[in-house]
Amino acid sequence: MSIQLIVGLANPGKEYANTRHNAGSWWIEELANNLNTSLHHENKYHGSHSRVLIDHQACHLFIPSTYMNESGIAVRACMDYHKLTADTVLIAHDDIDLPVGTIRLKFDGGDGGHNGLKDIIQHLNTKQFYRLRIGVGRPQHSNDVIDYVLETPSKSDRQKINDALQQAHEILPLILQGEISKAMQALHTEK
After folding, report:
1. 75, 83, 107, 113: which has the fewest Cβ within 10 Å?
2. CATH number for the domain that contains residue 58
3. Residue 29 is part of which domain span?
């Protein structure tokens, strides 16, 4: 089964645009930019959307306009509208369990304490979807996590994240063709 919907998780509003928690949406915005398309707000499924062709594969790009902890409402509405199943969805999100600039692809699994994923799992009633985990690093103290993900990364950290997102662009055709294990191998092999 190939990926038909790529979602970048984010909090809405300018004050959050450059925070670590919005790393998933950075990827979608960059994809749209590279494809010379723009995302249009869709009230019916609470987010910004574009239908695109990537390597002759049609797919949907989507950034929910709900707050992170309500991401599932938007993802569910978009999937229902386009009649998509969970196993054709790729959720791009920030991940504090990965070092800054590390990127991983996985299918299934828990929410890892990520409120966006938690809400998506709840609304889809399944964990059986793909995730593109974008490493943003971890704060020194675990009780600082909320502040940390809502802060802007340093210039060097942002560059590492941007480099990782570039890697994700390169393997995206494999993902869209359903060549998930090849994509994982390419992403997870140290260069």
Report:
1. 83
2. 3.40.50.1470
3. 5-188
pLDDT tens digits for 29-77? 999 999 999 999 999 999 999 999 988 889 999 999 999 999 999 999 9
Tally of structural domains, the chain: 1
CB < 8 Å & 24+ apart, contacts of 151-160: 151/19, 151/20, 152/18, 152/19, 152/20, 153/20, 153/100, 157/100, 157/101, 158/18, 160/100, 160/101
Q: Is the pTM of this model over 0.85?
A: yes
Q: Enumerate the active-site residues.
A: 21
Tens digits of residue pLDDT in 132-159: 999 999 988 877 888 999 999 999 999 9
